[in-house]
Known about the structure:
Layout: H1 2-15, H2 19-31, E1 36-43, H3 61-68, E2 71-77, H4 82-91, H5 117-123, E3 127-133, E4 151-155, E5 167-170, E6 173-176, H6 181-196, E7 201-210, H7 218-224, H8 241-267, E8 274-280, H9 302-305, E9 306-307, E10 309-312, E11 321-328, H10 332-340, H11 356-359, E12 371-375, E13 378-382, E14 386-388, E15 394-396, H12 412-436, E16 450-452, E17 459-463, E18 468-470, E19 474-475, E20 485-486, E21 494-501, E22 505-514, E23 523-527, E24 533-537, E25 566-575, E26 578-588, E27 596-606
Parallel strand pairs: 1-7, 1-8, 2-11, 3-4, 3-7, 16-21
Antiparallel strand pairs: 2-9, 2-10, 4-5, 5-6, 8-10, 12-13, 13-14, 14-15, 17-27, 18-21, 19-20, 21-26, 22-25, 22-27, 23-24, 23-26
Helix pairs in contact: 1-2, 6-8, 7-8
Amino acid sequence: MMKLLRAAVSTVLFLLPSANAVLAESAELVDLAPPNIVVFLADDAGWGDYSFSGNKSHTTPNIDSIATSGVAMDRFFVCPVCAPTRAEFLTGRYHPRGGVWGVSTGQERLDPDERTVADCFRAAGYATGAFGKWHNGSQWPYHPMARGFDEYFGHTAGHWGEYFDPPLEHNGKMIRTKGFITDVCTDKALQFIERNHKQPFFCYIPFSTPHSPWAVPDEYWQQYREREIAQEGSQPKNEITEQTRCALAMVRQQDACVGRVLRTLEKHNLRDNTIIVYFSDNGPNSWRWNDGMKGRKGSTDEGGIRSVCYVSWPKAIPAGRTLPQISGAIDLLPTLTALAGINRVGDRPLDGHDLSALLRNERSEISERVIMSTWGGRISARTQRYRLDNMGDLFDMQEDPSQTTPVNDQHPEIAADLQRQVADWRDNVLSITTKAYSGVERRGVDPRPLTVGYPEFPITMLPARDGTPSGGVERSSSAPNCSYFVNWTTTEGRMTWHVDVHTTGEYQVTVDYTCPEGDAGATVELSGGRGARLTALTGPAWDPPLYDNQDTLPRPGAESQMKPFRSLNLGRISLTSGEQDLVLRALKIPGRSVMDVRRLTLTLITQ
């Protein structure tokens, strides 16, 4: 692109009659250079976790600098939990429209026919990369590299149980890394920027923190472990001070990663022409200071869905402004594409608004709107001044930002109008997933099959979180996202993955396992549709202890303690295209158990 601009400028030098005209035209051509895009997304950080928001317990100078060098969207709304927010950022559409109705067991997958913000920028000639937590599908065509990203590094699961030296995926293959997870993913993002700094790039950095487990490098924990917490949360009796300290330490460590990216942009003279966005995916994951807002992560009240959103582009966005207009994650796709001057890919109607003129200070007002928020069947509606909560109570957020006193009696017409809009939205938007998954337990496994066997992405990982245990086999924890299968002690035990095989062919099969000494040598069978079968012996024994170096604070009971798994080659199986169950079971068990299983991996080798 820059070579083309230089060539155009050289041509102008010969054609224009005056030096002033040449300089003016050259400046105009330089302005045509497309902006780079860097999007940071925090995981479970609350609006109140930043010094720019008024947190007095610590500082976040690098993140704050994005706000001070640009614009702070003061009333910016996301979803109550992770995967829905990510889907809304990616598509500019409310998450139920794209099939996202949960956070695990397949419910987090964004329908493949949805077009993403990365699709838009790649179609415009940008290099695109994502580095961190994805959480909108693991198998192709749900995988980030099928959604517009040239490169992916991180974990596609909702949360990860190993923050130190984590095993992470790079373009479809698992690798063991060294360091703390946000540093490791930031390293990969910086490598991407270094490789592409001479062309326009779209770099998405979705951090894994401060989502639990409560873990942070010791150099940060030592700064926070005895720190006085200056502001209490809205429910002080429920606040766990150590968790507050750890969450803030994790945000501060994240702030250092943001600083590394900013310095790399400055090193290559890219900062002025790079649009930087920073936001979080839901409210805080513990009861800590959030400016008195009601609710936290999982709630459709203000505290569960209000996030910071800072947007900086020194070249084109006037600095130092705070915008009071309501906005949300659904606005980012139309706004970023408009700022960059590129076309949107896809023709589905968006729910988000283009706020580019507002950011450029070319407009001071936007049309009246309502932003809907939903989780677990609950819906709340936000206007510029009012919030209708999921119980139908109306609150004046200007006079009562903590939602303490309903005003339905004072404003019955406003309450009735918003209640009608919520009912309509429930019927026309939320019902999309309700109808698609009628009869399915909301917390059950998503009925859409797992997709296997695409030649353009031949490796398919089938983690335990996407399978169904039975016959005594259990998950290692009640939170499926970073769990593994345990208690495989009888021949009745089963692990089942409901799949749709895209390509008939031969597949190499491996399993990531641990197996105690004395239990190796069990005979296991993997079966598929139309009589497909593969048998193998387990072993050698591999029985490492649970990690003792992963947690700064005790891990929540719903989350697994993790351990290192090894890959066992089970052999090859011939699968026919179509929907079927892949079932892993034991035929003979010479010891007390078979093995613990973290994932099954299928690689298409012939077709």
